Amino acid sequence: MSRSCEAEIHDLLFDGLSSVPGAAIHSWSPPNAKAYRAPNLVLPKLIKGVRKGSDRVDAVFAHDELLFLVEIKCKLSETAGDVRKLRRIRSTLGAKGVLEALRRQGASVGTIRDMVVGLAVREVDSVIPGDMMVMAVGRDSVESIMDGTGLAAALVEALTASGQK
Amino acid sequence: MKPCPEQRSDHFDDFEIWCDKPSDLQLVGALSPLSRFLSRVGRVNILPGDSPEALSRGPAAHVAPLVEYDRPDIMIFYRKRPCLIVEITEHGYTGDNPLQRFARAVRSTELGSPFIHFTPFSRSRLDELLISDRPTSRRNVSARLFKGFVRLTEIYGIPVMGFDWPVGEQGTPLKASSLSDGAELRAVFGELVNVIDHLCLSHADEIIDCRPVLYCSEIRPHLEKTAALAAAENILASEIRIPNTPFDRVRAVINRPAETIDLLREPYFFKGKEHKFVAYRALQESSIRYLELPGRRVSYEAERLNDLPPTFAEKRWVLVFSGYEWRSEPNGGITVNADITLCRSRTGRTVRDRDQLLVVHWPRVFLESTSPVRIALLEELRDVSSDIGLSRMAALIRQSRTQKGLPANQINYIAYGTRSLGVWTERSTIARIYRQFCDLVILNDAVLLGNHWRR
User: Fold this and answer.
1) Which of A144, B66, B186, B304 is spaced 20 to 30 A from B336 at the CA atom?
2) How far is A148 from chain B (nearest CA, A)?
3) Shared domain check, B409 and B368
4) How many domains is chain A partitioned into structurally?
5) How confident is the model at residue B172 (pLDDT cuts 50, 70, 90)?
């Protein structure tokens, strides 16, 4: 049975980040929610200031004092819901709230100066959200990173150096 | 004590492993370096995501019977027969959730295969960790799960064992940060791998020949641990399982479904999650329109209950209430666990071998999608989710929140969705499980029979 494109991106990104010196994976939520190799943590979901359950973000990792929250899909055109969710998390929790939630669940996150939200996709087939980072993940590696945030340069460099980009 | 057979090393080609999901396949691959058995099995595949019927027409036809109720994570077959089934879940919580995979254990033992359930026996809930910096109390897996395992072992003579997934300081399951780190993997999965190796290398022939393996000294400690966990008292008793119920009471529920509110007692609905009020309102509005009798379905009239099989009136019943929406988990596991632990006779291997019959009351599910009650309740649900809150459901939730000292209008965790008030679909996993294990299923608008009574 062929693996889904989404599962392939998950594995490539996980493996790629694992090989980046200084990168730390804090939470991973694979397509079937079975995360054997990383904690699968939750974030409080706040709607109009009221907690309405929990959110899971596909990939939560840190690099160069930045916290990255990344949602994974095959096509950029399929990410409208993810974009809304990431923007909501950024506006309701912010880096501080996300960090607090992760630490309470046992994650050891070092110093963080800012948070980047982004998407990882195989096909960039629609307009890139200007306030996000978009990683184009090919069949073997992260092929390019379009960084609307202006913050992710160190990650791009690190992935390049590790042969992932 | 009888010694275990020598480990064989000449039969690896006779094994195959089927994995439910890619991550299960990945785990098997990662554990292979730790395992003499896993490292030498050539055929490790992901089971196609087809229905059991479709599977039975393809190369995994021999796997189809195993997944008839539900799909376990790792399925080890020897000479095309199930030899060891492993279920892995980090969601070991109290209440009913740990039971959600129980149907898989039942199917495994029905087919003669040992079953291992790998889960944290005691862990913190992530949503509770989110709330405060103070340490949260850890939640133990319900003893009902382990009682079910012990009963399955008694009934079928097949080992069914709980294995503890170790947790860290915070009470969350330990993970191997890298699947290539043998030491980390061994710390988490070492015990599991040892038993997989032993059962497959030493006992596979006995297992597929239906010879007993309970004497095995390697699995004895795990069976004893499972029995000890089964003997523990749950802090919270199950309020949704009502055993020893006369059929007259079941008949009363069918005639007036809101009777179940009295059976469970009203305070049940006013504590815990606000979702319970969806079920509460569904019970209040429910009335039965259709009744299934052996070989036919009729419009419901109270007298037609006399046409049900005479055994129904002769035996006591276990009534299981499901306040959940239309979904298979944890409904299926709860029901099957109730069957095995409360209904079956001491050695009852089939649903016909019961001391008590089994009825599930599931008022949030309808036989008819166009039921006026369903449409009206969906409107109430939309009203609750929209903050307007004029419906009876919203009023109940506000009343409950006020009693708890919570802001009345901040209704959490309820979102509008048609599955919240679902429609019975015969080909679904949960319908298969209920038809297989229940004697009666009471939906909001219909009463259905278990398969063993339909013909």
Assistant:
1) B304
2) 30
3) yes
4) 1
5) confident
- Band of residue A2 on the pLDDT scale cut at 50, 70, 90: very low
Amino acid in the structure at residue A85? K
ipTM of the assembly?
0.78
Do B17 and B142 lie in a common domain?
A: yes
What is the value of pTM for the model shown? 0.89
Shared domain check, B35 and B125: yes
Domain at A66, CATH number: 3.40.1350.10
How many distinct structural domains can be found in chain B?
2
Which residues of chain A neighbour B22 with C-beta distances below 8 Å?
3-4, 7, 32
B200 in the same domain as B282: no
For residue A163, pLDDT over 70 is answered with: no
Domain that holds residue A137: 5-161
Partner-chain residue, chosen from A30, A52, A53, that has the shortest CB–CB distance to B23: A30
Long-range contact pairs involving B260-264 (C-beta distance under 8 Å, separation at least 24): B260/B319, B260/B321, B260/B361, B260/B363, B263/B319, B263/B321, B264/B239, B264/B240, B264/B321
Q: Do A105 and B21 touch (CB under 8 A)?
A: no
Same domain assignment for residues B106 and B58: yes
Contact call for B23 and A1, based on CB within 8 A: no
Smallest CA–CA distance from B87 into chain A, residue: A34
In a domain, B346, yes or no: yes
Out of A30, A42, A52, the one facing B413 most closely (by C-beta) is: A52
Based on the domain organization, do B359 and B327 belong to the same domain?
A: yes
Average pLDDT, chain B: 91
Phi, psi of A109 (to 5 degrees): -100, 130
Q: Which of B165, B199, B231 is the last residue of a domain?
A: B231
Q: How far does B362 lie from chain A, in Å, by closest CA?
A: 24
Q: Who among B21, B45, B412 is closest to A34 (CB)?
A: B21
**pLDDT one-digit tens code per residue, B187-214:** 999 999 999 999 999 999 999 999 999 9
Using the Cβ of B177 and the Cβ atoms of chain A, whether some distance falls under 8 Å is answered with yes
Q: What is the pLDDT of residue B94?
A: 64
By residue range, what is the domain housing residue B346? 241-454
> Does A40 sit within 8 Å of B412, measured CB to CB?
no
| Residue B97 located in a structural domain | yes
pLDDT at B450: 97
Q: Do B46 and A1 touch (CB under 8 A)?
A: yes
Give pLDDT tens digits for A12-64. Answer: 999 889 888 889 999 999 887 678 888 899 999 988 777 778 899 999 999 99
* B15, β-bridge pairs: B78
The CA-based dihedral angle spanning residues A41, A47, A51, A54, taken in that order and rounded to the nearest 10 degrees? -20
Rounded to whole angstroms, the Cα distance separating B192 from B189 reads 5
- Structural domain contains residue B167: yes
User: Residues B294, B341: one domain?
Assistant: yes
Answer yes or no: do A50 and B23 touch at CB < 8 A: no
pLDDT in tens, B5-54: 999 988 999 999 999 988 899 899 989 999 999 999 989 999 988 788 89
Residues of chain A positioned with their CB less than 8 A from the CB of B176: 36-37
Same structural domain, B219 and B308: no
